[in-house]
Specification:
With 162 residues, the protein is mainly alpha-helical. The protein is 91% helix and 0% strand. The protein is rod-shaped and about 140 Å long. The N and C termini lie far apart (101 Å). 4% of the residues are buried.
């Protein structure tokens, strides 16, 4: 009977040791799971912060593109206005409502005075050609001015200056 009791006692001690090991393993697994959960929570927070930053960058980029498109549209409009002004100048010059600078006027008068000689020697576009040239010059200057204004506005926008 003592043998049976000793065997039962040993068996009970074995079960207790086995149970104790299982509890320790469970506690270690729970601790590892908690650490994994904390790491995942930290990674989630970092990802959410990055998403917020990317959203801000995206909004800024969209606003910048919208402003750049508005500047480009304004530049194109000014370019069209410059061409229209050039066309009005040419029309006014042809109608006699405006006159060219005296340097150009002198060339016109010289051409008119020597027109018989000029027509005999070679064909010169004469007044009309000078009027067209004046129109092209004015259009080019106005378009350059519009481009400079647009580029300066874009530089202020990109550089953050007022």
């Amino acid at each position: 009977m003592i043998r049976v009791l000793a065997t039962a006692l040993l068996l009970l001690l074995g079960i207790i040791v086995w149970q104790r090991g299982s509890v320790l393993k469970s506690e270690a697994s729970a601790s590892a799971a908690t650490a994994d959960r904390n790491a995942a929570t930290a990674a989630l927070s970092a990802a959410e912060a990055e998403i917020g930053q990317l959203g801000t960058v995206l909004k800024t980029e969209r606003a910048s593109v919208k402003a750049a498109n508005a500047l480009a549209a304004r530049y194109e409009e000014e370019k069209k206005d410059a061409q229209a002004e050039s066309d009005r100048l040419v029309a006014d010059l042809r109608a006699g409502n405006r006159q060219l600078h005296q340097r150009w006027q002198a060339a016109i008068h010289t051409t008119v005075l020597s027109q018989p000689v000029a027509t005999a020697s070679q064909s010169d576009g004469g007044v009309d050609e000078r009027i067209q040239s004046a129109g092209r010059i004015i259009a080019a200057v106005d378009q350059c001015d519009a481009q400079v204004r647009a580029l300066q506005a874009y530089a202020r926008q990109v550089g953050g200056a007022p």
